[in-house]
Write a structure and sequence with these properties.
By secondary structure, the chain is α+β, with helices and mostly antiparallel strands. The chain is 51% helix and 12% strand. A 4-stranded antiparallel sheet has the order 1-2-3-4, sandwiched between helices. Strands 5-6 form a two-stranded antiparallel sheet.
């Protein structure tokens, strides 16, 4: 009988291949888990802002219209305007610039306000960094300007996530 010590080369290669497969599965699962946690964090931030907007909405219902003009005009940010157009499905194609402005002021978009991340921190005492938001205090609508990309889809509102 031969004196067999150690492992054969075939067993070593099989072990390395199995370890590589397990590592790939673990990395993929970990990456998905991290994305899921980031989505949950974005959802929490949006809920936090929504709660503050709901409280302001109640004050507006009681007659305090001071809150309607918080933040900046939506036209102060080109990115915010583009996000609002995409989320609300507004199509300005075929309109002249003068007509676009007239169309903008004729619809309800005059109530949308653009709040930077600093505005949100100062006005709402929010400690996280949710990014810039578009808020309509009359309809309690909250829209993230940048949104959150998860599995190839961009989420801008809480209703997008449901």
């Amino acid at each position: 009988m031969k004196n067999e010590k150690g492992i054969t080369m075939v067993i070593l290669i099989i072990t390395v291949v199995l370890m590589a497969i397990l590592a790939a599965v673990a990395i993929k699962t970990g990456g998905n888990s991290l994305d899921t946690v980031k989505l949950q964090n974005f959802n929490y931030e949006m809920q936090q802002i929504q709660g503050k907007v709901d409280a302001i909405y109640e004050k507006i219902k009681l007659g305090n219209d001071d809150y309607i003009v918080l933040g900046n005009q939506i036209t102060d940010s080109e990115e915010a305007m583009n996000t609002l157009k995409n989320v609300k499905g507004i199509n300005y194609s075929g309109l002249l610039d003068s007509q676009r402005e007239e169309y903008y002021y004729q619809d309800n978009f005059t109530y949308y306000r653009y709040l930077t991340q600093d505005d949100l921190k100062n006005l709402f005492d929010i400690t996280s960094e949710p990014g810039d938001m578009i808020i309509n205090f009359k309809t309690r609508e909250v829209i993230s300007v940048k949104g959150f990309v998860y599995q190839g889809r961009t989420y801008h509102t809480l209703s997008d996530m449901q």
